[in-house]
Specification:
Glycerol-3-phosphate (1)-acyltransferase
């Protein structure tokens, strides 16, 4: 009974902490980044991006603290942990919840370069968050339907050009590029609608990952294949975190080399496209087995 009564207070504490810390750190990033609008000099912009990146790490620490703010949190991290802040990585991860972002921030703020996400264009108008992400050079992707492209062929490939320009900026600051390959959060409805061949995952989309490797493959030191599991999946992980009921998070990390056969033109080379698609599907087969194993071990 007491635990139930405490839930509203936990939600208020966690939500307020996330809101205030995001607001303060976001405003600091924006203030640091304002000169980017006034001084379009590459050397100055790189320096500003470095400062903004350091402040962004503070947000990572704040979100990491949130996991233990109102709950006794236990982390179960398997696999590789010898990572470095001055390296470049690309993460391919499954996507269960918005909490996934906080999990990856928890991992990154200690021994990885700060991550960059590919964001929906609409988020650029989000108060504080939009300008903050722009300052950090995160790509805002604007999707076009087939009808829009048919009416205006110039829209064809514009997302690719946006990604290309942003990836060029990542070359100057150690960066972790994050790709949720499923393209959206997992739900049973989406799982059924896509007729997924995997038990716990949606089918991965290969284009974005392949293109990032094509643009930055020579610069990435490794690919990090990360699998995230929330054992108590009956309720959304966001609610579990806010209400202080998310007690365990399981993370498996595997470091993969950036092999030559993973770099190619996914959109123009049909043979490479088939090969890369098969490679990514095999990674998802492995992820599915990891999730099944973790859930099986927990249920014992």
């Amino acid at each position: 009974m007491l635990t139930t009564l405490l839930i509203p207070f936990r939600v208020i504490i966690n939500f307020s902490f996330a809101l205030v810390s995001t607001g303060i750190i976001g405003l600091l990033i924006i203030l640091v980044g304002l000169p980017k609008l006034l001084l379009p000099i590459p050397a100055v912009q790189r320096l500003i991006s470095t400062w903004a990146n350091g402040i962004f790490r503070l947000w990572g620490y704040a979100m990491s603290a949130m996991f233990r703010l109102t709950q006794p949190m236990r982390w179960h991290i398997e696999g590789d942990s010898q990572l470095h802040r001055d390296s470049w990585y690309m993460i391919i991860a499954n996507h269960r919840s918005w909490v996934d972002i906080l999990v990856l921030m928890h991992l990154a703020c200690r021994n990885m370069p700060m991550p960059r996400f590919f964001l929906k264009h609409q988020l650029i108008w989000a108060p504080i968050i939009g300008l903050g992400c722009w300052t950090l050079d995160m790509p805002f992707m604007k999707r076009y339907s087939r009808d829009q492209i048919a009416r205006n062929p110039k829209l064809q490939g514009r997302d690719i050009e946006t990604t290309r320009k942003k990836c060029q900026k990542f070359q100057h600051i150690p960066t972790t590029v994050i790709n949720f390959c499923e393209g959206t959060r997992f739900t049973p409805e989406k799982h059924a609608k896509r007729n997924s061949p995997f038990q716990h995952l949606l089918p991965p989309k290969a284009g974005g990952t392949a293109f990032a490797l094509q643009m930055m493959g020579d610069q990435f030191d490794a690919i990090l294949d990360i699998t995230i599991v929330y054992p108590a999946a009956k309720r959304p992980a966001v609610w579990q975190l806010l209400s202080g009921q998310l007690r365990d998070v399981y993370v498996n990390v595997e470091t993969l080399p950036v092999a030559d056969d993973l770099i190619g033109d996914y959109f123009a080379d049909a043979e490479f496209k088939a090969h890369f698609h098969d490679w990514l599907n095999q990674r998802w087969v492995r992820k599915d087995k990891i999730i099944s194993r973790v859930k099986s071990e927990i249920s014992r």
